[in-house]
Structures are given as structure tokens and as C-alpha cells.
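Input:
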Amino acid sequence: MKNFNDDSKYDEVKKVLQNLKKIEVPLNFEQKLFDRISQNKFENELSFIDKLFLPSRLIPTTGFAVAIVLIFFLTNIFVPSIDENPLLVSPRVRTDVISTIVENKTKQKTNNDIFNSTETTQFNFKNKSNKKTSPTNDPNLGIRITGRSTQSNSYYYGSIPAYVSQNGIINKRGLDYKQIYLQRLKRAQIEQMRKRIEALLRNSNR
Amino acid sequence: MTEKNFNDLSDEELIVEFQNNNTISAFEILVKRYKNPLMNYVFRFLGDYEACTDVVQETMIKVYRYKDSYRSIAKFSTWIYTIAGNLARTELQRQKRRKMFSINAYGKENNENYEIPDNRYRPDIETDSGIKYELIQQAILKISSAYRQAVILRDIQELSYEEIAEIMNITVGTVKSRINRGRLQLQKLLKHIYKD
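Output:
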């Protein structure tokens, strides 16, 4: 344990410090002090709470808070909305699906064949191992409008192939798309449009 | 009681007189007694005369305003040194912040490196108080503030270990340890002074 009482080894330091010149207050020290006391200048000192609400502190703090709120709202405005109108969004072209459809077309299957075969409903869009027919350069894409169509070849040019099962339900397997749940009113509108197009197509085929 | 009588009273009696009867003369005598010792203490701690004057003034004002918070169980000198020490430490922190801020601002405005001016060999200082005292003061300022305070109170103000312990709110053992460490640091810094 160190012996802190042994000061002898620091005698030189102590001597140097003790011989330092004494510092004195300026001549007007007392006068200034009593002036301050008589004027009660110190009485106006603010409490901690008062200091918090000084304009010099309050203004920057408020400004900072407002800036944060503004930044929050501005960033939220520019975030793309998730709710998209399916009628306005241009569909994506899928090359893998196109080639499969072209292959089917080269087989010259009739419309009824497609409807009746279970192959259609169980069709795997991503199955590229089907090498029975060679791919062609025909850019035609098939869109089948309804499952009830019979004799007419109901392949129409478009970008999304929509295979229809026997029940008239679109087979969505293997498709890479976003499913949007529409409200009843919108669904009714789309259904109405679909029927109208169907009727037009039927008429044009006749 | 006349001023002559007040001069015979101890510090503790004077502050009690000031507390009980609000006697300004008693306060004035306390100011006269402590202004120079406090100035010496604070100057050695801060190394800035202007700031030191403000700190001592503030100490006296605090004594005046909060005279009722003094309790007779403690020595008056301990109480006033504690106030001065706390204010000096606050001022030191403020100076450090200010220095850091001004260095940053200088660099930004002038787009060049800032060099802290070296006042040690200024001719005006050399002629006024002597370079030796200036070097000693610089050495005192170089040791850490806790050791510095203890060394100043012991070797310059010549207070007892018990008084220092009370002022710094630490044990006597810690006071002795800090004084020794401070002295050791000073010894290393002042080697060349002894040779002269």
C-alpha cells in the first residue's frame, strides 16, 4: 500500500507552488459586486422550467418538430399506392407462356379439344420440357374469352393468355400476377363489360 | 455593533450575524477576507483572469443570496470554497465547450487548419510576471482537474486534508491520493524549472 503521508519527495513541487505570486482581485471588484447587489440584477434569474420555454429554445425546437412532421407527410405522399386499377394497368408479357401457347397452336387443336381435355386445366405453364413441337416465330398470343364457346376458334390477340377451364373459371396456375380483390360494384361493372364483349365477339363470328 | 467589532468576529459569527440581522457590514467583511484567497484559488484552477473575476463575484453573490442555506455545523471557509470550486468547474466546462466550438467554426470559415496560439513566449507576459510563473501556471493547468483542485487547495491555499475532503466531497484518503498523483504529474512537468 502506498504511503500518501510521505510528502518529502515532493518538497520541490511544494516549494514552487508556495512561492507562486498571489493573485489579487481588480481594484473595482467590491464596487462592482455591491453595485450588482444593490441593483438586484441577480433577482431576475430564471428557473429551470422558465428557461425551457425561452423563445431562444422554444423556436428551434418547434421548428425541428414541424420539419419532422412535414418530412413524414411528404415521404408518405410519394410512396406508390398499392391500390391499382386493373383496367388501367398494362399487363406484363411473359415469354415462357407465349412459347407454350405457340406450341399448342402448332398442334392445331380445336377449341373444343382444348375445352374437353383435362390437359388444359392441368396445364403447367412453366413446363418447358415439352419438346414435341418446335417453337415458331409466330408472335400470336391466345386469349380465350369464355368457356362456353364451342365451334369458333376463340383465340384472340392480346398479351395475357387466359386459359379457361370447363367450368368457365380462369386457370391461374403458374401465372405471375397480383390478385386484387374488387368491391362488389366494380366486380359487377367488369362482369357487365365482359358480357358485352362476349356478345360482340359472338356477333362478329357469325 | 460597529465595524471595528465585526472585524474581531470569526467568519462563522459574521455569517450568523448576516443571516439573523441581515447586516451588510458583516457581509462586507467576509468579502474583504475571502476575495483574494478565492481569486488565487480560482485563478490557479482556471488560468483566466477575467473569467476568474466573474467566478469570484458570482461566489460572493451566491453567499449573499443563499446565506440561509449555510449551517453552523460547517466551517464558513469550507462552504465558500465549495461554492467557488463548483462555479469554477462549471466555468471550465463552459470554456472547453467554447474552445471546441470556436475551433470548429474557424476551420469551416477559413477552410484551413486552426493552430492554438502559444502564449508561453509572449514578450509582454515575460516582462509582466516572468516566464517561470507562466510555465508553472501552464503546468498546473495541464494536470487533470480533480488532481489540480486538490493540489491547489493543499499547496497553494494551505488547507487541511479534512477541509479539502469536505470541499471536494470525498474521503481524506482520496484527497491524499489525488494530491500525490497531482504532485507527481507536476514534478514531471516542472523538471526543467528545478534545474534553473
